[in-house]
Amino acid sequence: MTNERTRPLIAVYGSAQPQPGDELYEEAYRLGRLLAEAGFDVMSGGYYGTMAAVSRGAHEGGGRVVGVTMAIFDPRPPNEWVHETTHTPGFPERLRTLTEMADAYIALRGGIGTLTEVAYTWGLMQTGAMRPKPFILLGAPWRRLLALLQEDDFRIAPHHYNLLTVIEDVDAAVQHLRDQLGV
């Protein structure tokens, strides 16, 4: 991985399950393309599903694509749109790499892996282990999940919710990052 960056790098978290034609896949593709066209590069887990979709969109939009892969998945190759690969031994190192390298984060709807990425990144910012960076949760289901956490009193301080921004629309999410990062 080269350290010569000229564009902000956005980590995108999402599911490996969606296929071309699925709503989540198409949303991730559009997100990647719009991010690249707006002047951002994209980083993801580098494999399939929404990771491939955001990679493809960013690649086709003229952006650089970084995949953070894991040895536990060897010999699975990264998706074909990844320009650079950072290969990590496992999930803890992958999480650390994604959070440390990124200038901002976007979480798509996903499964347990996506929830882990969200909780890890949010936790680092909440504890002060990492300075706060723009963190978008894309889609209405995130708003419902956060409301449930607040209603059921999971002992999350109200001001810690301010570290997250729920945005339901891809265009608005990209504009929010442009505003936040001055791109």
UniProtKB/TrEMBL annotation:
Pfam families: Lysine_decarbox (PF03641). InterPro entries: LOG_fam, LOG_family_nucleotidases. Gene3D superfamilies: 3.40.50.450. GO terms for cellular component: cytosol. This is DNA-binding protein. It comes from Ardenticatena maritima.
